[in-house]
Fold these 3 entries.
Entry 1:
Amino acid sequence: MTSHRGKSGKRDDQALTMEAISELLEQHRQSLADDFKTSFNQLENKFDEVRSTVDEHGQCLSSLELAADDLSQRVGELESVCANLQESNSKLTAKVIDLEGRSRRQNIRILGLAESIEGFWTLPSQYEIDRAHRSLTAKPAPSQRLRPVILRLHRYQIKDLLVREAHRRGKLAYRGQQIRVVEDYSPDVQSKASMPSTEQSWQISTTEGSNHLSSILHGSASHFQAETRSGSARLMRHGNTSMTCLHLFHRK
């Protein structure tokens, strides 16, 4: 009897233990399910945020692509305009260089004349000179390079004859100093020249005859006075005197 009761109690304890274990397992399962659900919800929210961010980035990329296309078109238009402006600028620069060269066609330069050497001379023939002056720079120090004298003849043909005559004579000198008579080329022409110097230069001797310039420049006697101010000479008709660097071609 006692033995039978012991076995029944043992069975009851085992049943209670299994029930408790089942209950614990169910609780643990429910806890895990809740945790998984919470984590899944959190992940889903994060995914929604990431998807929203990706959508925003996609919209930004689309806007950037549109802006890039617009900028590309505008850059192409600007490049076309710039090319046209460069072409126009090149043409205008060429025209300016040509006009400057044409404006200098009647000019000659005399290099090597000492500063303040100007004076008054009477020339036997008529010389059509528009103006004569030093180059428009500050008066140099004694050790610096002398400023050239620029003469503008009234007629290109006369200037051409002067240059050819100077070339024919071969040497030029004035008061013991060698000088040069050169074409008045523009800086652009000089820089583009292939030779070391685009200026044609010659030396003159004042002892080789006289009045040879008069044989080139025909006409009745006419005189000019040049008034020197700050290294430049202004030529004007005045009485029986004249001042001009063309005196260099005459015997003293």
Entry 2:
Amino acid sequence: MKNLIKIHFLALLSLVLLFGSCQKEDKEFIDETDGEETFTANSTITGLLRSASQNNGTQDNIIDGSSCFSVVFPIEVFANGQKLLLQTLNDVSQVQAIFDQFPSDNDTLEIVFPIQLVSEDFSVVTVNNQTEFNSVISDCVNSIVDTYACVDFVYPINCFVYNNNNEQTGTITLNSAYEWFEYLIYLQEGIYIAIDYPMSVIVNGQTITVNTNQELTNAISQADCSNDDGSSTNPTDFENYLTTGVWYVTYFFDDYDETSDFADYEFTFAVDGSAEASNSSGTTPGNWDFYVDSGVDKVDLYFGTVSPLDEIDEDWEILEATNDIIRLKHISGGDGSVDFLTYERTPYSGGGGNTNPFIENLVNGSWYINLLNDDGNDETCDYVEYEFVYNLNGTVTATSPSNTKNGFWTVTDSSSGLDLVLNFDVSGTNDPFEDLNDDWDVTNYDATIIQLMDVSGGNGGTDYLDFGRNPHTGCGGGGQGLSDILLNGPWFVQTYLDDGVDETYDYYGYTLTFNSGGAVVATNGTNTFNGTWSVTTSTTPDLILDFGTQVPFDEFNDDWDVLSYTETTINLEDVSGGGGGTDTLIFQKL
């Protein structure tokens, strides 16, 4: 952090003191303040102003996980495997929307480096990789409290400058948060300043005018910045959004897309907690209530037992709330299925796809991957042993003889057509299921095939994914046979050569047991290491091993080419994609 680029205002402050005036415009300021309105470097109000004028690092915490910094946009990230180009701070909500698509998946975010980070004092650092990022984040400590980070000011701000004899020595104009913060940080003892009121202060997006130091102190100290990281909903803002104007249901999903049931309804909500749903048949009264349950912002909706309004009588988790859209989610206490409800300012237009027939087709029976073309690379055989079953509650399982992968799915409908969103649990760096995690465009489907496409938001590459009713037959045999042999252990390491260096002794005395659930256990009676395994099949089988960071078995973390195998011996090889070195691993059955 000490290497961050910093530009200070010491020279600016010196000019103020030396020449008695530092005006950035040809404007004469008339000093109508009294002595009680001045403050110094050590005044309480100065500390509040420093906290409020520092760079606000709390609003993008879902990206960098730290209030110490804000990221410089644009940046590219992968949220649960889906590529996003975030152009501005407003785009951060796209990441949260992806995280909220499924009820209990493991949300992951990968940043495409390099990126730039801005610290509390507006210093900028360039971060080139994840290791540097982790180091910068862990080393950062806020020297200025960010209690009032949600407070901002309308610039320019004009101030009068005095010496300790209460003699005016000049004026200064601050044109940005950076200038204001730097001036306050380097304000010297014995210097008094007074703000040229009135002054405009922005608190949680609302602008108020203050005329004295006391009014300014009150405005800052009474600000509630607890929701400034975007992780929760401001109750006042939510009430203002909800109770202003008319709302329409533009999406309602309860196992199936039932949005059309609400196509002719207008919804209004009042500040007293009452609500109305009106259509050509009449008006149905209801009520609403905002509350927080175990840290989760929720809104209760109730419109009685009249169909279809009774379908939305639930305690809804608030995913997003703005003046234009309110997105809600409810997780069933029964089967764990997820319902979605979206209100917007314009009526439902019908979309461009046909969601329910697609869902009925998807959840009917088993599917197999018949094609995965990743930007020109055919990776179909990585999934040839897996059978996919989609459940109506939004879960999906992919099962092979040696492994089971769990995930979630959802279908969205827009003017451009249907999208199938997939999110599988991913383990290790070579897990092929990471390539499935995306927002796929549905290009074609019937009872026997589902064809999907995804165009990358980065380099514009195109991926293709096809599901069929029968397993793909274009791969070499051996996957099932290898899995059966591995399960019939235990095994020991007969040979391990790391780019020609014999390291077999590191594994002396260890036995390896491959279990049908995709787990592998290595133990010597004293030490035990747990890992995962799976077999994929291209022209020849591949054995994927992952022991995490557990030394020495982390050496085995790779996608191993199976050169040959028998009932008692398995010969593996890995050629490095970097320097081209070759590793050799041979398992022998005990």
Entry 3:
Amino acid sequence: MPVSSTRSQTLDRGLSVLEIVSSARTPLTVSELAERAGLHRSIVYRLVRTLEDHRLIARDTTDRFGPATGLLSLATHVSHDLTTLSAPALQRLADATGLAALLVIREGGQAATVLVVEPSEPLVPLSHCLGSRHDLDVGAPGHALRSFDAPSPHDHAQVRRARTHGWASSHGEVIDGASCVAAPLAGYRTPAAIAVCFLGQRDLTELSAQVVATAHDISQQLASA
């Protein structure tokens, strides 16, 4: 469609690429973006570099692009933002378990923590940093986020568990001595998951049920938002 003389063609193209990335189920290559946008690869490459610089999209280890945490910053005033919807349910989970509840999204090839909700009475303090990141191939949050990808024979066992049972677990993969349980969230525009992490021993059957129930609650709210 021709762009009006009163509009910026570059901005129009950039926003089109951003919309394609945001609505895609999985990260896309430059070639895939160019095909969907109807633009030349060289144009799309320049656009994604700019969007990447502004943390609106992120590149993973296979040179595919997905939404980044900068999109959440732009959405802070939207009433049905993911963090706003998730916070009450995560607070209930944190208080019920005595563990900090985390909201994590996929940013390129990493799992990025975008919300940390502390329990009213923490059982065992374990520091969590807002904005912290780790590789998608390690840790329960990463495995839960990987479950959104197309199945592969090389998938980690916990990625397969997240797909079939709705949760994944890990021990010592991100923080030495720390275990995590995570569950993917359905219904959001980019892969997202919630998690709790702990030191020592916990009943994984009980804890995973609590995490999965919370994820289901948030997913239902996202679907109706």
